[in-house]
Amino acid sequence: MRLDIITLFPELASFPLSQSIIGRAQQKGIVRVCAVNPRDYTNDKHRTTDERPYGGGAGMVMKPDPLFAAVEDVRTDSSTVILLSPQGHPFTQKRAQELAEEKHIVLVCGHYEGVDERVRQSLVDDEISIGDYVLTNGALAALVIADAVIRLLPGALGCAESSEKESFADREWLEFPQYTRPPDFRGMRIPDVLLSGNHKRIEEWRQRQRLLRTAARRPDLLHKDTETTHE
Ligand code: 9D3
């Protein structure tokens, strides 16, 4: 896969993807990530990427021309171009799985109060938000999407980190509590059942913990589960 991130902060977008599992995926040639600065596609003396909005109001709007020029430079006929913005469709594991099938993804990051509407109209194929909270710029959102997609590419994860059995992939319940040694840490003892050696009882305990935790924290996942079984 090829992945281009169009952002005014190319260093911010590149460094995190050079680390750990995603960095290794790049070294193995599974993915090639490039950060592209729309400022390099300006023609004026001040290299202007933003202007005041027509109609007035606070804040600045990203100009269309540097974004169009940057995207048109990197994209091919088979590229998928996605705008990151608070107005986008909510990002999900399902969308990550769909994007993991693509050959080339171009992530366009907004900044300031937003981007010129013509970017939405005729430059991008889709618009994604990573959740209902306000970030300072889209580069961080692009990193979240890049991470979620790249780890799904064949060979990106080692056996130990395998992505086969996953919470959220199929709207599953939350995970059960995990413990490792020592069995008594500062007076906090692990549940006796985990030392029992009784695998049937351990499995029952884990399933019950998952249910309790999901009901307490994410009741929406329980309801979704019922919906899908009735479909
Ligand atoms: C004043 C209106 N603001 C919208 C809530 C303007 C605005 C705030 C923050 C415009 C852009 C941004 C920067 N955020 C993103 O570009 C962004 C984002 C986000 O803030 N939250 C969740 N997902 C995303 S994807 C891109």
Task: Report on this structure.
- Helix 7 crosses helix 8 (219-230).
- The mean pLDDT is 93.
- The longest helix is centred in the C-terminal third of the chain and has 19 residues, at 199-217.
- The chain is built from 8 helices and 9 strands.
- It has 231 residues and is α/β, with parallel strands linked by helices.
- It has a 5-stranded parallel beta sheet with strand order 2-1-6-5-7, sandwiched between helices. Strands 3-4 form a two-stranded antiparallel ribbon. A two-stranded antiparallel sheet has the order 8-9.
- It has helices spanning 10-14, 20-27, 64-74, 93-99, 117-122, 138-150, 199-217, 219-230; strands at 2-6, 32-36, 50-51, 61-62, 79-90, 104-109, 126-129, 184-185, 188-189.
- The two termini are 34 Å apart.
- A hairpin with a 2-residue loop joins strand 8 (184-185) and strand 9.
- It is elongated and about 70 Å long.
- It folds into 2 domains: 2-150, Alpha/beta knot; 165-230, tRNA(m1g37)methyltransferase, domain 2 (Trp Operon Repressor, Chain A), CATH 1.10.1270.
- The structure holds ligand 9D3.
